[in-house]
Amino acid sequence: MKELIIALVGQPNVGKSMLINSIADARLKVGNFSGVTVEKAEVRFIAQEHSIKIVDLPGTYSLNDYTQDERVTKDFLENEAYDLIINVVDATNLERNLYLTTQLLELDKKMIVALNMMDEAQKEGVCIDHEQLSSILGVPCVKVSAATKRGIGKLLNRTIDISNFPHEKSKLIYSDVVEEEVEKLSFFLKQKRYKTLLTYRDLVLKLLQEDPRVYQKMHEEPIWLEFSPLLKESLEHLYLHHETKDVSEIFAEERAAFAKGVVTEVLTCKKSISKTITEKIDALLIHKIFGIPIFIALMWALFQLTFELGSIPMDWINLFFVSLGAYAKTIFGDGELGSMIADGAISGVGSVVMFLPNIVILFFGIALLETTGYMARVAFLLDGFFHRFGLHGKSFIPLVTGFGCSVPAYMSARTLKNDKDRLITLFIIGFMSCGAKLPVYVLFSGAFFAKQNAGNVLFLIYIAGALVGLLAAKFLKVFVFKGIDEPFVMEMPKYRLPSFRLIWHTVVSKAIMYLKKAGTFILGASLLVWFASNYPKYPDIETAFAKKIELAQSDKEKVTLENEKAQQLLEKSFLGMIGKSTDVLFKPIGFDWKMTIALESGLAAKEVVVSTLGVLYALGSGVDEGNENLIGELQKQISFASSVSFIIFVMFYLPCMAASIVFTKESGSYKYLFYLFVFTSVIAWGLSFIGYRVALFF
Q1: Which helix (H) or strand (E) holds 563?
Q2: Residue 31, Cβ density class (10 Å: 0-12 exposed, 13-18 middle, ≥19 buried)
Q3: Which of 76, 92, 218, 429 is most buried, taking the most CB atoms under 10 A from its CB?
Q4: Could you tell me the strand order of the sheet in which 39-47 lies?
Q5: What pLDDT, on the 0 to 100 scale, is given for residue 273?
Q6: Least confident range of 250-264, 265-279, 332-346, 656-670
Q7: Helix, coil or strand: residue 449
């Protein structure tokens, strides 16, 4: 006969003693735990060919060391031999009770949750979706009433079944900040092939929670020398986000947020006499009808602010880089070296740095909404809507981050634990127009739409990209990444005043990441475009035009001849050859070879598209989206329909080189990068074709 030892755990006054009597239909044997005065209650009985022993542990609100009861319960659960845990929960006060449940889930033991006092809960108008709760926690949940003995038989049957099944890990997750650090530290341990009895995740979590035994063991290992600085950096990140250096307080807040998120998801009805301030705010901000319009209005205001306020310092930055380019030519001359440095490197990097104010404003707005606790609620609000398109509610965070930059957006998708959910999210992040595409939108909207409508056009571009992304996600879910939807829980942190120190940290780190891209990928791409547009050399053409310019009667005629020379040289350059060789693919969507080249240069970095257009129209690469000459050239040489098609293509084709590298790393395979290239190219070309044909009627 198989022996089954069960630990009965719950907070005080949840009806454990009554439940244990209802299960065993026998009286408890009461004694004391060894060395302490805390009572030890046990019961033994036989059921379904199992000899069952239930140990009723002292009631405790958490697994801390503050009281003797807590120490006894914690010590038993961490050090004694038992087969599984029955966690007794008061169904009338679910959120408070689930705090202890989260700590029990961290033990990584077989467990079942008994939702006790369901008779009282029903009288109070509390309705709990226990199946959804089971899916979210990753452990079975059974409704019971110890007083009426309802559900007792089912609880006993499920308990015996669980004991015979292999153990499956729970689905406990923390906030994105914690999960990001867990992922980073676990990846390091995996790289070092560190040997441990715990999983890397469990080990890292114990270290972040400053478990003394784990610290002592790790401190004696050679890996500690390299690991310690990384751990310190991760803890500093948590301190900053939670505004405290007390890790017990940090994880208490994390568990409370998780419990609140679970309850928000599984509590299907509740009659409440009075509401807290948080509940009153939530009643408006996550209202089923008004919640989404409020969110859209906030996003619209943020984009208007990004466009209007961000345009002020752009002229100053542009003037600085133009002056810097001119100064470089005084040092290096007007020859090849001077042109490469001024027109290639400085101009290319300048075209990116110029948009830093827009990026900063956008990230500031997103960080502001995150630190107040609003973003987590929007994720919950959008979960039902997202599921219709095959997405997870937590996909919201990386998708919104994608409006700033795709690189951190791809990285933030790590918080999605299900591989299929994560891959679908990764595939559509590029449809959320990043800040690097902003120069193209500003240039074309300024050239082909009324100035007063620029902000609205920009907002529509971003919204349209997001909607197409959702439809693409639905396609991927139905035809490619098939599978059962994972249940969703988003931690619900308490509302708090924005931490400007935290916002500053977030904005600065994102801005530095953006500038690093300007100094690496974009610098390289700018030099590549400069080289391809200036070589090979054609001395015959240059000599012929030099004679014509010398004989020209007026300055205007000379400028015209200079532009004609640049035009001919450009057509015969490597860049011109590439554009013309692929031109046949883009003619059906209204592109000429210059537009084609600009798009292809954008594969390296989207910011380069505008400066490439400046080179292609013989205006030099030192132009920006506000350059009147470039706007004039576009208006003369590109039709309205072609401009619409160009904007649409930029919205959806493959992200920049830096983002593509990060995508490959996060997806886990180069084959997914190839699939992404095909997927985005087909959508971009197809929608551009439709947009071009429709725009021809206007």
Answers
A1: helix 555-572
A2: exposed
A3: 429
A4: 29-32, 39-47, 50-56, 2-10, 84-90, 111-116, 141-143
A5: 46
A6: 265-279
A7: coil
d(Cα 568, Cα 538) in Å, to the nearest integer? 10
CA–chain centroid gap for 439, Å, is: 24
Label residue 48 left, alpha or beta by phi (over 0 means left) and psi (-120 to 50 means alpha): left
* Distance of alpha carbon 216 from alpha carbon 228, whole angstroms: 12
545-577 burial, b for 16+ CB within 10 Å, e for fewer?
beeebeeeeeeeeeeebeeebbebbbeebebbe
**167-180 pLDDT per residue, tens:** 887 778 888 789 88
| Each residue's pLDDT tens digit, 510-538 | 777 767 755 666 677 667 777 887 788 88
Q: Is 547 helix (H, G, I), strand (E, B) or coil?
A: helix
- 596, 575 in Cβ contact below 8 A? no
Strands 141-143, 111-116: pairing is: parallel
Residues in Cβ contact with 605 at an 8 Å cutoff, skipping those fewer than 6 apart: 352, 436, 517, 521, 522, 525, 656, 657, 658
Helix and strand totals (H; E) in the chain = 33, 9
DSSP state of 452: G
Q: How many CB atoms lie within 10 A of CB 267?
A: 16
- Closest by CA to 433, choosing from 674, 647, 591, 604, is 647
Residue/partner pairs of 669-674 with CB below 8 Å, 24 or more apart: 672/423, 672/426
Strands 39-47 and 50-56: antiparallel
Secondary structure (3-state) at 484:
coil
DSSP 510-532: HHHHHHHHHHTHHHHHHHHHHHH
Give 451: exposed, middle or buried? Use CB within 10 Å, 0-12, 13-18, 19+: exposed
Predicted model pTM: 0.59
Q: Establish whether the linkage from the previous residue to 588 is cis, with ω within 30° of 0.
A: no
Range 118-153 burial, b when 16+ CB lie within 10 A, else e: bbebeeeebebbbebbbbbbebbbbbbbbeeeebbe
- The C-alpha atoms of residue 112 and residue 105 are separated, in whole angstroms, by 10
Spatial distance between the Cα atoms of 649 and 692, rounded to a whole number of angstroms: 11
Count of residues in the chain: 698
Q: Is 313 exposed, middle or buried (0-12, 13-18, 19+ CB in 10 A)?
A: middle
Could you tell me how far CA 668 lies from the centroid of its own chain?
17
Beta bridge partners of 52: 4, 45
- pLDDT tens string 117-133: 888 888 878 888 888 89
Q: How far apart are the first and last CA of the chain?
A: 83
Give the contacts of 635 (CB within 8 A, at least 6 positions apart): 447, 448
Using N-to-C axis directions, what is the helix angle for 521-534 and 657-667, rounded to 10°? 130
| Residue 244 exposure: Cα atoms within 13 Å on the Cβ side | 10
CA distances from 288 to 128, 271, 486, 502 (A): 19, 18, 22, 30
Nearest to 16 by CA among 98, 79, 88: 88
* 578, 597 Cβ separation under 8 angstroms: yes
Q: Which residues does 250 contact at the CB level (< 8 Å), separation at least 6?
A: 238, 239, 242, 244
